[in-house]
Design a protein that fits this description.
This is NAD(P)H-binding protein. It comes from Streptomyces tendae. There is one protein chain. By secondary structure, the protein is of the alpha/beta class. The chain has eleven helices and eleven strands. Strands 3-2-1-4-5-6-9 form a seven-stranded parallel beta sheet, sandwiched between helices. It starts with a strand and ends in a 7-residue tail after the last helix.
């Protein structure tokens, strides 16, 4: 039988993708490190355990690939999986990449290049996730506890996108192999937005006053480390805010509309859907 393997199947994008594919009648296997025992369509998958790759791929011809998170060099872990997927006859592989290039992380760029080069390989380069404003992300935790956004990005804008829209784009590519696909899509929301603008929207839509507290890049890296992120990844993620501040990440695309037939959600719509998150 053919079907879709969704790695990171219990995450923000993966869980939404699984629901969309199953709702469309597509046989879908949700892969995670701790699958639900009672779910016959859940399978164990661990990037640090290559013995889980084969059983997860068995009987599938399409894959949604979520590389290891919080890694500046995912290629060594993912490369053996790519070889195994090719041997298993996978015809379409859609990888969730990033529109934001982490500093000093050439492995992530090389991984995207290899996926684009393989037959049926597609990279979705997603902008910042609106879900970062939801707990347990450190950004959201600080808003919830202190009513403030601490950032080194200044008034720089980013094309924030809802993970549900990323999932919808991926579903369009994975539900039917007959759908034509490019090998690369920039996935963003409908417009760029700065952290001060996000604070204004949350305040206006929920009544919870949110302010912006400017901090340095070094202070941001320390905060990420304190939240449990590996030091190297925390430093790279904090350095991204410099690029946002300097305007290098203010990009938007029409890819969500192109793939799904509808425009991406605005941040105001996202806040309305999750207003309970910012209550005291």
């Amino acid at each position: 039988m053919s079907g879709v393997l969704v790695t990171g199947g219990t995450g923000k994008t993966g869980s939404a993708l699984v629901r969309l594919l199953r709702g469309a009648g597509v046989r879908t296997r949700a892969a995670s490190r701790n699958p639900a025992v009672a779910n016959p369509d859940a399978v164990r998958f661990d990037w640090n355990d290559p013995t889980t790759f084969g059983p997860a791929l068995d009987g599938t011809d399409r894959v949604f690939l979520l590389p290891p998170v919080e890694s500046v060099d995912p290629l060594p872990l993912v490369e053996p999986f790519l070889h195994q997927a090719q041997r298993a006859g996978v015809q379409r592989l859609v990888m969730l990449g990033s529109a934001i290039v982490l500093p000093n992380a050439p492995g992530a760029a090389e991984l995207a290049t290899r996926v684009r080069a393989r037959p049926g390989g597609v990279v979705l380069r997603a902008s910042g996730f609106m879900q970062n404003f939801l707990r347990p992300h450190p950004l959201a935790e600080h808003i919830h506890r202190h009513g403030e956004i601490r950032t080194a990005a200044g008034d720089g804008r980013l094309g924030w996108v809802d993970a549900r829209d990323i999932a919808a784009g991926a579903a369009a590519l994975l539900a039917d192999l007959k759908v034509d696909a490019r090998n690369d899509y920039l996935i963003t929301g409908p417009h760029g937005m700065s952290y001060p603008q996000a604070a204004q929207i949350i305040t206006a839509r929920t009544g919870r006053r949110v302010r912006v507290e400017p901090i340095t890049e070094e202070e941001q890296a320390a905060a990420y480390r304190a939240s449990g992120m590996p030091a190297e990844f925390a430093a790279a993620l904090a350095a991204v805010e410099r690029g946002i501040r300097e305007g290098r990440e203010d990009r938007v695309s029409t890819a969500v509309l192109e793939l799904t037939g509808r425009p991406p959600r605005t941040f105001a719509e996202f806040v309305a859907d999750h207003a309970y998150e910012w209550s005291r």
